[in-house]
Amino acid sequence: MTCPLCASDAPLSSFPVPGGPADASVDICATCAAQIDGTPEANHWRGLASSMWSEDAAVQVLSVRMLKRIAAPWAQDLLDQVYLDEDTQTWVDNQAAASRHKDANGATLNQGDNVVLIKDLPVKGAGFTAKRGTAVRGISLVADNPEHIEGRVEGQRIVILTQFVKKK
């Protein structure tokens, strides 16, 4: 059997998918299991381009959750393409772990929230300044740093410090 997430031909073990049906699990390889719980290595997850279209909702949920964690332009492009039915999208968003990401006022930030910049921010390497009051829709949380979020400003995907945003 091959891993439904990365398509590697390795021994598989059952991995629970929290937030949905109580007995939901997917048989995945040890590398995928370790990276789901740890730091994802972007190149390992290139197989998500096909697994996100799986007929198994649990595979879709894991695929989308991992795409949200990967800080690579190709992962965001795939997220922009994916379509999930309402129940599956709720499952994706229903993660047990509470976010440690907080805005300037201490409000909890979650994946997909909309925020507003509270300060003009020069964007390094892009040659523009993100102006105060700019709305950033559908943010992504940087998994290993609660002080960083990602979002699109003027068509560019940028990293933003949480201290310079407030939740809409």
Automatic annotation (TrEMBL):
Keywords: Hydrolase. Residues 3-37 form the PhnA protein N-terminal proteobacterial domain. Gene3D superfamilies: SH3 Domains (2.30.30.40). It comes from the Bacteria. Pfam families: YjdM (PF03831). The keyword Hydrolase applies. One of its GO terms (molecular function) is hydrolase activity. SMART domains: PhnA_Zn_Ribbon. SUPFAM superfamilies: Prokaryotic SH3-related domain. This is Phosphonoacetate hydrolase. It comes from Aliiroseovarius sediminilitoris. The lineage of its organism: Bacteria, Pseudomonadati, Pseudomonadota, Alphaproteobacteria, Rhodobacterales.
